[in-house]
Amino acid sequence: MTVFLRALGDEIAYPLLVSSLIAASFAASIASLSIGYAPFNLASAMVDWMAGRESLAALVLIELRVPRALLGLLVGYTLGLAGAVMQGFLRNPLAEPGIIGVSGAAALGAVVIFYSGLAHLTSLLLPLGGVAGAAIAGVILFGLAGRGAGTTTLILAGIAINSLAGALISLALNLSATPYAAIEIMFWLMGSLADRSLDHIALVLPPMVTGWALLLWTGRALDALSLGELTASSLGFKLERVRGAVVGGTALCVGSAVAVSGAVGFVGLVVPHLIRPFVGHRPGRLLMASGFAGAVLTTSADIAVRLIATQPELKLGVVTAIVGAPFLFALLYRLRSERP
After folding, report:
1. Prior bond to 39 cis, omega within 30?
2. Residue 2 pLDDT class (50, 70, 90 cuts)
3. Alpha carbons 271 and 134: distance in angstroms, whole number
4. Fewer Cβ within 10 Å of end Cβ, the chain: N or C?
5. Calpha distance 293→20 (Å, rounded)
């Protein structure tokens, strides 16, 4: 009876948790639409937009506020979901989306567009370069996974890709023709959602959603993997397919997120740890909840960027790092204290 009641409680608690996180995401996006550097009447802007009037408030809403709020949700959901998948797949509490090298490759792709001067032709070339970099890294990793490479091999390949991408980005900064170009690259690498448009969202949304679908598909396999690879195989899960889905899904959605927002760290590391106790430490249930929690955290951090008045504007990656670094120290301390 006790087991039945506990299971029933879990069945009720999980939908309630996800519903609460969806509601929090919606509230954060409304707050993101309302908050800015200048006074803004959100209700009036929405009325003008719905009536088809091209007022200044309606233009600010559609051209600036809506893309920024939507990207906060999309990028945060991606990082939270991918972080939960990586920690479940690698069975490592310190794993995060960038561990397989996709983030570094996407950043390098965008830096190549910056360095070559193509970014001045159209702003859409920047995310295209990021997606191309992530795709190349994904092809390399997918080829390894398809040939039966183990988890350790994928991690080493990711470290190698990250190291190469970091070295080439440093080379681009070193050889930058003007200090202005170097500063522009460095600011982009810090991560930001400012000055993005609906075109950026339309460009990255298809690969991002495809990546989400692949990662969510791995939920049941991650539950089985928590019991070990042999047990998961004996339960009928094809680990090569799971590795392919994890690598391909992470490359698509995280590469797209980095391509449009720059490097936003620690969200994928922190969020799964915050949510895990509420889902009974089940990797499969952690995925959806971590995605929405990541959306709330990233959107809230972007709101904080605008509330802290500085010149130039604080970068989103800086804020998430300030929040995430102490959390990482606390996590390491806890893991150390749990060792026998």
Report:
1. no
2. very low
3. 23
4. C
5. 10
**Which among 240, 234, 264 is positioned nearest to 78, based on CA atoms?**
264
For residue 148, the 8-state DSSP code is T
| Calpha distance 307→319 (Å, rounded) | 12
Tell me, what amino acid is at 274? L
Q: Three-state DSSP class for 46?
A: helix
Contact 316, 257 (CB under 8 A): no
SS (H, E, C) 257-310: HHHHHCCCCCHHHHHHHHHHHHHCCCHHHHHHHHHHHHHHHHHHHHHHHHHCCC
Q: Are 201 and 71 in contact (CB under 8 A)?
A: yes
Rounded Cα gap, residues 318 and 265, in angstroms: 8
pTM: 0.88
Tokens standing for residue 76 = 């945060």
CA gap 333, 312 in Å, rounded: 35
CA 186 to chain centre: 19
pLDDT mean across residues, the chain: 84
User: What's the pLDDT band for 20 if we cut at 50, 70, 90?
Assistant: very high
DSSP state of 314: P
Buried b (16+ CB within 10 A) or exposed e, 5-26: eeeeeeeeebeebbeebeebbe
- Tokens describing residue 230: 């042999």
What is the token pair recorded at 211?
Answer: 């990546």
Tokens representing residue 285 in the block: 């249930």
